[in-house]
Amino acid sequence: MIVGSQKPIDEIWDMVKEFKRVIVFGCNTCVAICHAGGSKEAETIASMLKMRSSNEGVDMDVSSTSVMRHCEPEYFDEVIDELRSYDLVLSTACGVGVNFLSERIGNIPVYPGINTSFFGAVPEAGVFEELCAGCGDCILHMTGGICPVARCSKTLMNGPCGGTNEGKCEIGKDVDCAWYLIVQRMKDLGTIEKLSEVIPPRSWSTSRDGGPRRVSVEHIREYEESAEQKTEAGGSK
Amino acid sequence: MAEDNTTALNEPYRPYGADIKETRPYSPCRAACPAHTDVQAYVGLIAQGKYTEAFEVITSVNPIASVCSMICHHPCEQACRRCGVDEPLAVRHLKRFAIERSQDYRRAKRKLTKKTRGKSIGVIGSGPSGLTAANDLASLGYDVTIYERHPVLGGMLASAIPPYRLPREMLNEDIDDVISKGINVKTGFEIGRDRKLEDLMKDHDGIVIAIGLSQSRSLNIPGVEGDGVLLAIPFLEDVAFDRKPDLGKKVLVIGGGNVAMDVARTARRMGVKDVSMVCLESAEEMPAWKWEIDEAIEEGVTIDNRWGPKAVKRENGKVQGLEVVKVNSVFDDKGRFNPSFDDKTTKIIEADTIIITIGQMSNMSFLKDGPVKLDERGLIQWDRDTHMSSASNVFVAGEVVTGPGSAIAAVASGHRAAMALHLYLQGEEIKGNLPEHEKDKIDQLPGKVVDLLDREQRQEIKHLPPEVRCDTFTHFEIGYDEAEALKEAGRCRGCGGGAVVDPNRCMACLTCLRVCPYGAPKVFAVSEIRPEYCQACGLCAPECPGQAISMVSYDVNEIRSSMPDIIGKRDPKRSDPVIAAFLCTHHTGVGGFNVPGNIRTIPVHCISRVDVLDVLSAFSNGADGVAVIRCADGSCKYKGVAKRVSSRIGRARELLSMLGIENERTEMLTASSTNGNRYSSVCTEFSEKIKELGLRSS
Amino acid sequence: MKSESNLEKVIASGNPAVTAELGPPMSANGHEVREKAKLLKGFCDAANITDCQTAVVRISSIAAAYMALQEGVEPVMQMTCRDRNRIAMQADLLGAAALGLKNCLCLAGDHQNFSAAGRLKGHPGAKNVYDVDTCQLVGILKKMRDEGLQEGGDKLEEAPKFFIGASWTPMGDPIDFRPVNLMKKVNSGADFIQTQGIYDIEGFRAQMEKARNLGLHERTAILGGIIVPRSGMMLKYMDSSVAGVSVPKALIDRMMKAKEAAGDDKKKAKALQEAEGIKITIELIHQVLETPGVKGVHIQAIEWESAIEGIVKEAGLYPRPSV
Q1: Does residue B429 fall inside a structural domain?
Q2: Distance between CA C109 and CA A173 in Å, rounded?
Q3: Which pLDDT value is given to residue B588?
Q4: Could you read off the pLDDT of B4-35 as tens digits, one per residue?
Q5: Which pLDDT does position A197 carry in this prediction?
Q6: Averaged over C48-74, what is the pLDDT?
């Protein structure tokens, strides 16, 4: 899932202070799970903004609402008219949601209420860990299921470097060395000899470096774009 | 038009969550109650010091609540899930407490209901089922007349239940509630004697026969006829109406049921020192409730088990005793009542008076050859699904058709008969539309939850000592005082009042699973909080990032939405700080939370329900400080509350500090739960601290 | 000869090779580089020019290397993967070759986090690159040199001829993978290897044995790393905090004893410790050179380039062969 983290209220205040009517719009999937931007945190931010505006003597009308996801239009269709009645939508979705809603809402600004951090797992309550960087060319089968792109501080493909210290990364004692883990894991799996091969320079074109990315599922697109489908569904999409 | 009127007029009290509860398994206590009284709701309200609300919950389904608070056999207690932990809640006694605390309230609220239906109903009999039917039909806007052969209303409650068990003033409170709706009462009026049923059917649009089982059965043994042998009901009636018979020095009661206990214990109160009982059953098999037997024995009644009556021995017509024969067994292989005797073993039990208490029946003579048909056994023919007799506008309720049972079961039957008659008069289908007997209920507490619960002894129900109570017909049981009642109500685990997940908001994040100390949530596509595990502590709801969790028994948003009223006006020139204090309601009432006016108390069902947003809301509405006051370790009803709430306070502080509000203004404090005043002093100390820190401007 | 560099020649001659280290300054003062070069001239076969070591901004490795060359010291230009993608790296390599640089040591580079240390603010917020890693960079150099091709496959009219080096941390975690790690660098094309500083000679020898078993000592020239200890505190710090370095207690004790011998005299304590440090260094040089498979030493006198002369002389490694 996508992990987000909260922005300091000062930063949010600087974004929103010029607006009279603000709605904090929560997203109840990924960013809710990480306690950053779900319904509850949206209400919390709204509550904080109310107090802040009152402290500053600014007349601001703040409310909050939320839907399950911001990244598919069907989810926010129901509330979009309500959102349009505000001067500003402060979205607590990930950056995907902010972009996506911004493109569809019309002439109302959509600002980010949280920071989008990474794709992560929840090893235990309140801890979120980056395990994948979405580089677009998965090599986990070669590295014992542990991703050096996401988890090595230097994205080394032929690690470890000399900075491994008691299994930890040189950047900090609380960061595991991914390559230490990879070696241990592949030893346990009996596949350590695979690591003798040098992985050649990879192409980063599938990653962010290749420009904005888009996945199109052909068989679905083919159907969606066919004339028959449009007639069947009464012309609506 | 009539519809509108009745709903507006007679909307029964609905506690918070009543609608959700109907969609979910009942708490075992409620499912066990024939009238489905929402025990969890009213015990919870008592625990919060909301006694009149508790009264409303009780009386919304039970018009003879006072009576039941004295004599109910309380199947709710037998079903209570605390039985698996220590002892069941003292539900009946708590009901009594709530009712006693609501005396003025109930009297003040009595009023006529409008007779909007333009139709009249005759109810024959004013026992539990008759009173209930009359009450319901009057509430629905019918013009109701009750016919009672005795000089007072109440049926067996007034005429046969001895006053040491049911003080008449309690019965009369119930009767007054019902009658005050504008019901016509004809006492000393016997159908068949004073007016024929056929004529009565012409007087009214509908009739309810609820005559109960007010005749005692007798024995067909030699010597039974004549002085010195009495039947239970006439005996109890004589005592009730102050026609006290001479019983001699020794009384022998035949029978082992609850009425037999009433008879024996009544005889003791009439000054007879030597009262014994004889019955077919062994001590374990006796049909009387165990507590009735124990109380009788306490009062000096002796019981001779497993003897069958053979003949009454008389000398010169005067009773000398009863010849009895040894019982081999009472029930056959299939568990049916089919006693067998050892004819060779007999004995004589000496007695001056023998009272036969072997069961009851109805006097059906007024129905003979009339429109209401009897079956081959002489019982009224009726349809259980519609409560209809063979005459279409004559409905039946209570023990006359159901056979012997409890008062509360008769109430349930009365409700069904009234609803049936109402549907009939409306021209609607009856079958399938009457309140159900059987309800799904929450399973027993899982063992691992039982292990997590503290053992808390039931608050003892105090009785007058046997030697005192045998000298009088006054009630022998002493009601709870407030401290006892709150303590007892606090033992309730709130079955069925717990957390519910809105699947439209749940994103299956597992937060509840991680928060719940009892392992209640199970998460698949969405979370499901299993009611048999849930202890209704409320710890999960404020943690849910999707705000998907609500509580059945209270509104999780209530505090925030009412915060402006709680804080109220804040004097800009005030010298004392405005403090919002969240206090656990398991302790309201005890000591009364007597705090200075600048401290706004917010009673909560355990501080586990206090949300970060509630704290923010208090400051947002002008509080100078917020104190969340927890109960000391060991006295909290739930697990893991302090740590979890403390981390919420940490979170609130973190947020508030971003707004320049100092950490010291938000505190979680601890007070002893055994003494309400400790709460007050903790609040006051906190208030002083905030005063020193200074008041918030703007 | 792959590169015709002095270092390559010394190694080929069978003499034990000596490399030293020159850290460029955090300023535009090229004079400082030249002064340091003068201190090293004649006492080593080549000197490593660090590439923004610990991610601190300094005169670029390539520029400093060129200045050292002008001063008559053959430089080993260091190149980290941290700051440049493969385009910038290859461009720099072509430029370096054009300037006459002949040795290149490929490194992953310290993480930018290191730059904010002590009084330095550094650039911990910098974006790191790591387009390629050490093995891959070694491979790129080899491909350019031996095949005359850029990494992408485009032809180079004139190939840069570098003597390719890589680092090795023999005692780093996970220790049993380190020989494989070395092998990968060798397989990628590393002509010489400079190791992380060695104090635990037994541990180093055990790792060397594994490297020998893989035949690596014959395919690459392993120069044992010697970090000249200057104080007991420095040894303690390296033992506890520097990845892949462990210092035997006996060595630390020796330094601490030297310090204590000076009593409260701080100046004397410094002098005594430095003298003891040089003694230890010479012992270590001998022990490393005695280890089978080792072809030389890489002596790092960090911000103490003036010590090199004495050490090399004392160790019997002077004069440096001219080949």
Answers
A1: no
A2: 18
A3: 55
A4: 434 334 467 888 999 999 999 999 999 999 99
A5: 95
A6: 97
Domain that holds residue C57: 6-314
Interchain contact C/A (3 or more Cβ pairs less than 8 Å): yes
Q: Is the peptide bond before C174 cis (omega within 30 degrees of 0)?
A: yes
Chains B and C touch (3+ CB pairs under 8 A): no
Most A CBs within 10 Å, among B502, B509, B527, B557, to test the A interface: B509
Residues of B whose CB is below 8 A from A32: 507, 509, 545-546
Beta carbons of C239 and C245 less than 8 angstroms apart: yes
Q: Do B296 and B191 share a structural domain? A: no
Nearest to B693 by CA among B566, B579, B570: B579
User: Across residues C36-50, what is the average pLDDT?
Assistant: 97
pLDDT at A152: 97
Q: Is residue B553 classed as helix, strand or coil in its secondary structure? A: coil
B590-622 pLDDT tens trace:
555 678 889 999 988 889 999 999 999 999 999
Q: Which of B535, B551, B567 is the last residue of a domain?
A: B551
Does B206 lie in the same domain as B222?
Answer: no
The fold adopted by the segment(s) A2-118 is Rossmann fold (3.40.50)
Residue B4: what pLDDT? Answer: 41
CA–CA gap between residue C231 and residue C321 (Å, rounded): 32
Query: Are B347 and B297 in the same domain?
Result: yes
Burial class (CB in 10 A: 0-12, 13-18, 19+), B557: middle
Q: What is the pLDDT of residues A116-174, one digit of tens each?
A: 999 999 999 899 999 999 999 999 999 999 999 999 999 999 999 999 999 999 999 99
Residue C128 is assigned to a structural domain of this protein? yes
3 state DSSP class of C295: strand
**Cβ–Cβ contact B525 with A under 8 A:** no
More confident position, A62 or B476: A62
**CATH assignment of the domain containing C116:** 3.20.20.220
Residue where one domain finishes, among candidates B329, B360, B391: B360
Chain A contacts of C133, Cβ < 8 Å? 154-159, 161
Please name every residue paired with A90 in a beta bridge, in sequence order, or none if there are none. Answer: A24, A111
The pair of structure tokens assigned to A7 is: 């922005």
Number of domains present in the structure of chain C? 1
Full domain range(s) for residue B666? 558-693
Residue B328 sits in the same domain as residue B376: no
pLDDT > 90: what percent of chain A?
A: 89
Q: Is residue B31 part of a domain?
A: no
Is the minimum CB–CB distance between B23 and chain A shorter than 8 Å? no
pLDDT tier for residue A233 given thresholds of 50, 70 and 90: low
CB nearest B545 (choices: A9, A40, A51): A40
Residues 12-71 of A with CB under 8 A from B: 28-29, 32-33, 35, 38-41, 43-44, 47-48, 50-52, 54-55, 57, 66, 68
pLDDT band at A229 (very low <50, low <70, confident <90, very high): low
> What is the ipTM metric for this complex?
0.93
Q: Which parts of chain B have pLDDT scores under 50?
A: 1-10
Kindly state whether residue B436 falls inside one of the protein's structural domains: no
In terms of domains, do B511 and B597 share one?
Answer: no
**pLDDT score of C313 more than 90:** yes
B655 close contact with A: CB closer than 8 A: yes
CB A108 within 8 A of CB A84: yes
User: What CATH number does the domain containing B598 carry?
Assistant: 3.40.50
Q: Is pLDDT at A12 greater than 70 in this prediction?
A: yes
Name the token pair of B204: 């009214």
- Helix, strand, coil % in chain C, rounded to nearest 5: 45, 15, 40
Residue B105: predicted pLDDT: 96
List the CATH number of the domain containing B291.
3.50.50.60
Given an 8 Å threshold on Cβ–Cβ distance, is A44 in contact with B655?
A: yes
Measure the CA–CA gap between C110 and C75, rounded to whole angstroms.
Answer: 21
H-state helical runs in B490-549: 511-515
Write down the residue that tokens 């405005």 correspond to.
B578
| C323 falls within a domain | no
Q: A8 at the B interface (CB within 8 A)?
A: yes
